[in-house]
Each structure stands twice: as C-alpha cells, then as structure tokens.
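Case study 2.
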Amino acid sequence: MRSHKSLHISNPESFKNQLLLWSQKFDEIVWLDSNNHKQKYASYDAVLAVDAFTSIQTDSYDAFEQLKIYQSTTKDWLFGYLSYDLKNDVEALSSKNFDGLHFPELCFFQPKKLFFLKGNTLETHYLNFVSDELEDDLKHIESTVTSSAVEKSSEDNKIKIKLRVHKDEYFKKVNTVLNHIQRGDIYEANFCQEFFAENTSINPIEIYRNLNQISKPPFATFLRLYDKYLLSASPERYIKKDGHKITSQPIKGTAKRSLDSDEDNQLKKELSEDVKERAENVMIVDLVRNDLSKTATKGSVKVEELCKVYSFDQVHQMISTISSKIEDSIHPVDVIKTTFPMGSMTGAPKISAMKIIEQLEETKRGLYSGSVGYFTPDNDFDFNVVIRSILYNESEKFVSYSVGGAITAMSDPLKEYEECWLKAKAMRQVLEG
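Prediction:
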C-alpha cells in the first residue's frame, strides 16, 4: 500500500523549514513539530501529512462511530482533528453558542504523502500510486528558499483584536462558577473566553512560524483543510496509544517566566508548591484515572508523575502523567471516546462542568480545546490538546483565539483574569505585532 524510503538529512532544522513551506501548495496539511523537546513519549521530531486520498468530515451526530468505521476499513495512517463539541456525541449535551469559525466537528484524511523526521533520518511513506513523485518532491523541497518564501503581511492590514467577554462580565461569570462550586455542583470548571478579529486576512504560515518561534512548544501544529486553518503552539498531550499502553498528560497550573534566572527558579518553585495549582492538577488526575479505567485492564491505571513542573519559553507548567493498559479487543477509537473531551479542558465532575461552562461561555469552542493527531496502521495514536492556538476561516475572514483557566474554590477572579492574559500573550503578539 505504501512505499517507504529512509534518507539522511544533514541539517534537520533547515529541512523542516523547507518541508513546511513546500507543503503550502496542498489543500490538506497536518504538520506536527516537537521543537526538539526531548520528551519521554515522543515518537518523532516532526511529521508532515499532505494531500488527501480519502477523508471523513462530520458533525457530532454518531461521529465516533463513523470514525471507528473509517479507521477500521482504511487500516492506514489517518491525520485530523476532533472538535470539543463532539462532547454532544458522547453525552446528552448541546452547543448553542455563537460560532464565527464554522469548522466541521470532526475531520480526518488518509494522506497520499507522509514525512517523518527523527534526528538526521527522514522516512517517507508514499501511497504506491504516487511513489514515483518522491524524487521530484525531494528536489522541490530542497530547492525551497525559506527566507523569501514567506511574504510579509501588508502593513495596512492592521488586526483589531476584540474581546468577546469584557473584564467586569468575566468577573461576574467566574463568580457564578464559584457559586456552583460552593453549592457542590462541581469542584472545578475550565472557563474560557474568546478573542477575535472580523474582516481580517492573515498569512497563516507566517503567523504560525512567528507563534512557534515565540513559544517553541512540544506539540506545535499547522493544520490546513481548504479554507480552515489551525496555528497552534500547544504544550499539552491529550492521549497516546503505544501497543497496549495508554498515556495521558494533563496540564493544570501555570506560572510566568523571568529573564532573571534566580527569579525564574523562584517562580518555578512557587508553582510546584502552590496549594491551589496542585489541587487543580490533582482533581484532573483523578478524573483522567476514572476515564482511563473505562477501557483499562484491572489494576493497570497508574499515576507515573504527579504535578511535575516543566519549563517552556513562555511559561512554567505543572504536568501529570497517567497511564493504563488495554486488551487487544479494545478499539482505539473507544479509548478516545471514553476520555473525550479531555479533563484538563472541562472540569470535575465532567458532565456537570461541561453543562455549566456551556451556559457561561459566549462562544462555541469548536476546535479550540479539541485535539489534533493521528492514527497509525497498527491502531496506535497520538493526540494533542488544542490550546495556545489561533483559528482562521479564510473565506469568512474570521480570526479567533481562546484562553481559559481552571476555576476552583480557591480561585481569585482577578488572578484568573491575569492568567488568561498571560496565556494569550503570544497569540496577541503575533497578530497585533
């Protein structure tokens, strides 16, 4: 079905830039870049999937069942995304908030051409009927000029970012969440707000590269499906399947960085000891353990790392790692369905939290707080969490990014508001300059 080639790449960083720019001529692109983070669970440094041979797009009705059939019948590499609103397929929920982006709820494609980069090795997996195009493609990739190929956005196209929820309204909504917590309806809810620009055209590849340059996250993504774009600097893995092992790595807990190394170490230490941030993280760890137990073999759910602080270019983050084992009889899509949406973006208990945030948020989340990733022909998968991301509908000239934070009984609305602005900083910077 696929022809495999392995090649030596002398300068992987330069080749990555050329590969991404070369990909821009295709209508279907998924680019995943680990930015050389040496993670324990990483499979590749970078992956590019382009040019759909087959694909599936659907709304939330029966979406996971349709994905299951597509994945089982294709038995090949599949790349795509799951939007947050697939919650409506998993539970008796709905999404009635404003949607300026209009992305399909679920979209996956079987790429004709695949590139996997690890160290100095490039592996290509081309479907047999296009394998004769590989030599030409490599010549074009290597002749791509990276500096001039990205034209700058015109100066007169000033982007005006608007707030969907203003400060006083945000405080009111956070206080409503706190009332729900005091009443015992929930322990924690991830409440999000949207920033947006209308009648705006952007250069997606330029914006993505600037965003990635600022943040250098381990789950960076450039996704294009015709006129819909995701430019993501995500630091978070949602879930990975490797053989019988399932791994989930929720992030809860954020602190700013400092250029002064002593102050930076102090900020990191304070985050690791912060009672509120640890409580947020532990609640979500419990939720993930519960979700994983639905498909796990008995006694196999383990917390491998609890509340460990990792440093990224923009922020320090508190990350936990939870794993489980599954039997061969468990379908990979069922592992995703029983854990979706990810606990770090919902709250606990999950269904109550999703109902409350649906009432309080002003916009439909769509792909924000959903997930991008891939299935392998061996039924493995790896998916990120779509946060720190810019979404763009080119036809509607609509640009959007959302940020959120976990509200618990110990939350101070002002501090939550400030944390949102910290998370939004990189997106705002690349859009407004």
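The chain has twelve helices and 20 strands.
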